[in-house]
């Protein structure tokens, strides 16, 4: 594409390119805004920089520039002339930005009567799809950031509430221990006293319960040991040997018989002893 006989080329110097892009982008956005206001046109402008950053404009019913509000051209003929002139200038600026700064530009204009004028540095559909994906991604990121911020605020609030509760519990504990009671009113002291009495009752009830449980346990142990002892006695009695003398036996008769059987005959001999045969 040429302008007259001079071919337009991309700005190669990085610094010059950045300055040219910024200046022409701002001019293009400004002219799109002015066309939409002065001529009651619907304008949509999409610009992607060489690095992929998105800049966009879409006309709306309420737009102002600085402190001076721009108004629609009321005369129909003047409005049509203004529309034609500014539309052509806007299309030209869009083209120049796309060539000089290697930007991807899409411009859509609907006249007051609904006639469409458009410009795309490449494929219009691809630019619109790219815009949709980029804008949707940016919106999701914005929602995620907002959700994270809300979650952080909720966490801060919950932490503050927990800290407050902990401080109240610590203060209550100090008062129950008899500390920090100098500033307590009579009503507060009565409340602390009632709470202490209630705590003491609970402690005593728990002690009584533990004592009863311990006594029951000892009683069960005692009964078990007595039962074991009884079984051992019965087992020992069952294993005893019978006595040598049974009650009712004639002990004297037996003894007499044994005495008689043990008597020996004795004779008196005078003189030398004589060998006697055992068999005589």
UniProtKB/TrEMBL annotation:
Q: State whether keyword Membrane applies.
A: no
User: Which residues lie in Polar residues bias regions?
Assistant: 249-259
Q: Please, one GO biological process term?
A: positive regulation of transcription by RNA polymerase II
Q: Where are the transmembrane segments?
A: none
| Positions of the K-box domain | 152-242
Swiss-Prot/TrEMBL keywords: Coiled coil, DNA-binding, Nucleus, Transcription, Transcription regulation
**Pfam families attached to this UniProt entry:** K-box, SRF-TF
Region: Disordered; residue ranges are: 237-259
What species was this sequence derived from? Nepenthes gracilis
Q: Does the keyword Transcription regulation apply?
A: yes
Q: Where in the cell is it found?
A: Nucleus
Coiled-coil annotated spans: 152-235
By its UniProt entry, which PROSITE patterns does this protein fall under? Answer: K_BOX, MADS_BOX_2
Q: Which molecular function GO terms apply here?
A: DNA-binding transcription factor activity; protein dimerization activity; RNA polymerase II transcription regulatory region sequence-specific DNA binding
Q: What is this protein called?
A: Uncharacterized protein
Listed under GO cellular component are:
nucleus
Give the MADS-box domain ranges: 1-61, 63-123
């Amino acid at each position: 594409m040429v302008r007259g006989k001079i071919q337009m080329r991309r700005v190669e110097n990085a610094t010059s390119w950045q300055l040219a892009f910024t200046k022409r982008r701002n001019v293009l956005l400004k002219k799109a805004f002015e066309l939409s206001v002065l001529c009651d046109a619907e304008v949509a402008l999409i610009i992607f920089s060489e690095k992929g950053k998105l800049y966009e404009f879409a006309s709306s019913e309420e737009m102002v520039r600085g402190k001076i509000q721009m108004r629609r051209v009321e005369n129909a003929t003047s409005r049509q002339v203004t529309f034609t002139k500014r539309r052509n200038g806007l299309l030209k600026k869009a083209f120049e930005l796309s060539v000089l700064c290697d930007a991807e530009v899409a411009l859509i204009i609907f006249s007051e009567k609904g006639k469409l004028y458009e410009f795309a540095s490449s494929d219009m559909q691809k630019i619109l799809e790219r815009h949709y994906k980029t804008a949707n991604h940016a919106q999701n990121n914005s929602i995620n950031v907002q959700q994270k911020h809300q979650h952080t605020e909720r966490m801060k609030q919950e932490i503050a509430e927990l800290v407050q509760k902990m401080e109240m519990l610590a203060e209550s504990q100090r008062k129950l221990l008899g500390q920090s009671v100098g500033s307590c009113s009579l009503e507060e002291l009565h409340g602390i006293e009632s709470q202490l009495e209630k705590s003491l009752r609970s402690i005593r009830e728990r002690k009584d319960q533990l004592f009863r449980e311990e006594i029951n346990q000892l009683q069960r142990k005692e009964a078990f040991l007595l039962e074991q002892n009884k079984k051992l006695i019965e087992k020992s009695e069952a294993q005893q040997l019978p006595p040598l003398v049974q009650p009712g036996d004639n002990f004297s008769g037996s003894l007499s018989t044994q005495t008689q059987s043990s008597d020996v005959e004795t004779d008196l001999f005078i003189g030398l002893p004589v060998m006697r045969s055992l068999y005589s």
